[in-house]
Amino acid sequence: MISTVRTVIIELLIKDKKFNVKFDIVFDDFPIPEAGILGIAFLKSNKVIIDMDSIQFIIQTYLLIIPESIANNKVEPIIIPERSNCVLRVKSDEIISAELVAIKKHELNEDEIIANSLSPVKNNAIIKKKQTLLTSLPTKSEFNTDLCEALMAANIPLNKLSNSKFREFLEKYTVKNIPFESTLRKGYIDDVYNKTIENIKTEIGENKIWVSIDETCDVEGRFIANVVVEVLKTDSTGNIFLLHSEQLDRTNHTTICKLFDKAMGILWSGSINYDNVFLFLTDAAPYMVKAGSVLKSFYTRMVHTTCVAHGIHRVAEEIRGQFDEVDNLISNVKKIFRKAPSRILLFKTEAPGIKLPPEPIITRWGTWLDAAIYYCENFETIVRIIHLLDENDAVSIQKAKLCISQPNLQCNLAFIKSNFEVLTVAIKQLQTQYVPLTDSIKLIEDIESKLCNLHGPYGIAVSKKLNQVLIKNKGLNSLKQICKIIT
Length: 487
Fold this sequence. Notes:
Elements: E1 6-14, E2 17-25, H1 40-46, E3 48-51, E4 56-59, E5 64-71, E6 74-80, H2 98-101, E7 121-122, E8 125-126, H3 128-134, H4 142-153, H5 164-174, H6 181-187, H7 189-204, E9 209-217, E10 223-231, E11 240-248, H8 253-267, E12 277-282, H9 286-295, E13 303-306, H10 308-322, H11 324-337, H12 341-350, H13 367-377, H14 379-388, H15 395-404, H16 409-430, H17 437-452, H18 456-472, H19 474-486
Parallel strand pairs: 9-12, 12-13
Antiparallel strand pairs: 1-2, 3-4, 5-6, 7-8, 9-10, 10-11
Helix pairs in contact: 8-9, 10-16, 10-18, 11-15, 13-16, 16-17
């Protein structure tokens, strides 16, 4: 067992990064001269000089220079060449200035620092001035702070700073040392976040707000929930803020309620203003509906409504289920022209003024209806081009030719266009920002009026689906009553 004088942990600031470094103090008769703190592995890999006169590191040679003593105010250095591991001994009767042996910063690389160093001792005690010097840390770079904030505001990933051309451009025109990504992440992102939160809190203050929570999966399959807020104003629109984003272990009404309350705690850190939350907007998932019901026990003035645009999309899905022949046509024609340059060329040659058939995605609201309307408007052209294709080339061509031979196909396309085109228009308008409440309510009421007058099995089924969606959205009825009052 080898004993030391003492151990001290000091916070170092190295290239704008903070490190808690343990320094071991040894006696002058330290018994292991061949194993120690600074050695050949460190010297070879980093080619380091420690110049204690100017208190700086220089990547230059295989030499390590440390002052041995002070004689007539002149430093006499000990020069350690490249060799095996060693420990420098400090005699207790030497007069050593703490300022001359302090390590202030280095220029090695992003991931390496000196793990240990030898502190000067006198009478078996650490010289106090050394610790004082190391804790006198420089302030953070204003340029780094502004750069971090600008990149994040412009949605530019911080790892772009590792691009050599980008770094050269910034260094050339800013005449500044450009930090690395890790420097900004460890030393500046928190400051930018705190500043942004303070700006949001100042903007919202004691105003009335609406809150929206949406949950989705990222590329790694994690559940990520986002909380958005906006000030409710009578004469103008407010600014929309992303207040909080969090990964959830699971998605249920409990985690959503906790997330909601946590976000309100960030906004009003002293005391949550429960009466200032007027509206809660979510999708129509059952756990979101249940979360809204639970939260209303605390936020008593809050109205919870589910997304109407999402509800109309569910009606559009009902329409797709009612018209199997149209769905088969859209699906097979989509396959015909996907990654088929010769067929695309044929289409552009035969119909130069018409866009290629759309490729609807089920999860993108209203795209299937848009595709059905496209086939209605260009039905004869599509039929002519399909007949030009060889059905032996692909199964999708055979199925498409079978679809266009159905006698009711064109009539069904016309029925969809004439009666349900209003739904695609409504989805787009309801997703538009800053639309007055009265305009949105009027749009919904127009859809109800149009679909309730439909006849036949298709029309009745779609009208029934719309009624089911709107009845479940209890908050929508409250908004309709508010709309009647303010108009």
